[in-house]
Design brief:
Radius of gyration: 25 Å
Order of helices and strands: HHEEEEEHEHHEEHHEEHE
Helix content: 25-40%
Structural class: alpha+beta
Number of domains: 3
CATH class of the largest domain: Alpha Beta
Strand content: 15-25%
Shape: elongated
């Protein structure tokens, strides 16, 4: 039988072992957080080292250039944009130093949830410096983020964000303004992808697109290079059937149509 003194010693040792384990986990997490913090600080420094409105000018000018390249984008209020995805009207606005992308759902959604950049407390609790802060429907969150590429996309932006999805609207708030046209385009495509990842909001073509005849191709331009499609090998997007030069598709890596994001193509048939 253990004596009272020996039992007390064992209890103390157990407590010390527990504290050491907690301290080790905290140190490991702090190291990972420090590494990510350093990378974020470098990104922030890179942002601040640029001119007031970034290399591509003020956000309103960036939106104007995107509208020139993508006919599906329309002027919004205060220099923003308006568009449609999955049958939902959307708009992009610049609010102070943030970018908001909102879709009107008009009661189509049944559940709600929120996903945002996690606080330190959440990261400590999850033992994961890459964890998100999640509120609302856990089941819907798991369905939406079943594709790990979605979470990876948000982390690759390297900016704080909040995404709120509910019956009436879907709002993505990015805690920054775009530095250039490429970054704004990436955020827009990401907002489309988030909405389309929710069950019931998947994007689907509303009409059937028939194969394009060679005479028609000759009168069309490739959306990547701007040259005529009448010459060279032409391929069509497997999803929306938009024609591209095969070399241009290979260069872009995906369909050039706004928010399509299809990476597979089929050979364009000619008549």
């Amino acid at each position: 039988m253990w004596g009272a003194g020996e039992g007390a010693i064992l209890l103390v040792l157990a407590i010390v072992a527990g504290l050491v384990s907690i301290a080790f986990a905290a140190i490991k997490l702090l190291y990972r957080l420090g590494d990510r913090g350093a990378r974020r600080a470098w990104t922030a420094l890179d942002r601040s080292s640029r001119s007031l409105f970034g290399p591509d000018g003020p956000p309103e000018l960036i939106c104007g250039r995107l509208r020139e390249k993508h006919a599906e984008l329309r002027p919004g209020t205060q220099g923003g944009l308006s568009f449609v995805s999955s049958g939902c009207k959307g708009r992009l606005d610049f609010i102070a130093d943030r970018t908001e992308i909102r879709f009107q759902l008009d009661g189509r959604a049944k559940n709600s949830f929120e996903v945002s950049t996690a606080s330190f407390v959440t990261q400590l609790a999850e033992d994961d410096p890459e964890a998100f802060r999640v509120r609302g429907s856990e089941s819907l969150y798991r369905q939406v983020f079943a594709d790990p590429g979605l979470a990876r996309m948000l982390r690759d932006w390297k900016v704080a964000f909040e995404w709120k999805f509910g019956p009436e609207d879907s709002t993505l708030l990015i805690h920054s303004q775009p530095r250039n046209e490429e970054e704004l385009w990436r955020w827009l495509k990401g907002a489309y992808r988030l909405l389309e990842s929710v069950p019931g909001f998947e994007s689907a073509p509303s009409v059937q697109i028939l194969p394009i005849a060679r005479p028609q191709l000759a009168q069309s331009q490739c959306q990547v290079c701007g040259a005529s499609l009448g010459q060279g090998v032409v391929v069509q997007c497997r999803r929306c059937s938009t024609p591209h030069h095969e070399d241009c598709w290979t260069y872009a890596g995906e369909c050039s149509t706004f928010a399509c994001q299809e990476r597979q193509y089929v050979r364009s048939s000619s008549a």
